[in-house]
Amino acid sequence: MAETRGGRPIGSSQRPTGGDKAIVSNKRQFFRRRKVCKFCVDKIDHIDYKDVRLLSMFISERGKIIPRRLSGVCTPCQRRLSEAIKQARNIALLPFATRAVAAAGSHG
Fold first, then answer.
1. 35-74 as b/e, with b when 16 or more CB fall inside 10 Å?
2. Is 90 left (phi over 0), alpha (psi -120 to 50) or beta?
3. What is the pTM of this model?
4. What are phi and psi of 90, to 5 degrees?
5. Distance separating alpha carbons of residues 108 and 99, to the nearest angstrom
6. CA distances from residue 21 to 28, 30, 34, 35, 98 in whole angstroms, order as listed
7. For domain 35-100, which architecture applies?
8. pLDDT tens for residues 33-72?
9. Cβ–Cβ contacts within 10 Å for residue 86, how many?
10. Euclidean distance between CA atoms 31 and 44, whole angstroms
11. CB neighbours of residue 82 within 10 Å
C-alpha cells in the first residue's frame, strides 16, 4: 500500500533512506552513526601485510574478509586491505580458513 502525504502518494525518492538519518520505532528514536574509515581517521597510508593484529580485525572467525559495508572502510583502503590480507595469507601469517567444527553438523 502506498504511503501518502497530504492526499497524494509519496514517491520512492522522497522516502527516508539509510545514512545517519533517524530510525523511528514504536518507543524510541535513535540516530545511526555513520561508519568512518579507520585508516583515513588514523592517517595510515600504507597497510602493512606483516601487521597481523591490524589485519585480523578485518577477518571473520571463518577467515573471510569482512565487507566494507560492515567494517566501514572506504573503497581505496578496502582494496589495499584485501591485498595485504591476501599477501599475509600467502606467506602463512594469516589462515585461509579455519577448521569447521565437527559438532556443528557432519554430513557423514
1. eebbbeeeeeeebebeeeebbeebbeeeeebbebeebbbe
2. alpha
3. 0.63
4. -65, -30
5. 16
6. 14, 9, 9, 13, 38
7. Irregular (4.10)
8. 778 899 999 998 999 999 999 999 999 999 999 999 999 9
9. 13
10. 28
11. 16
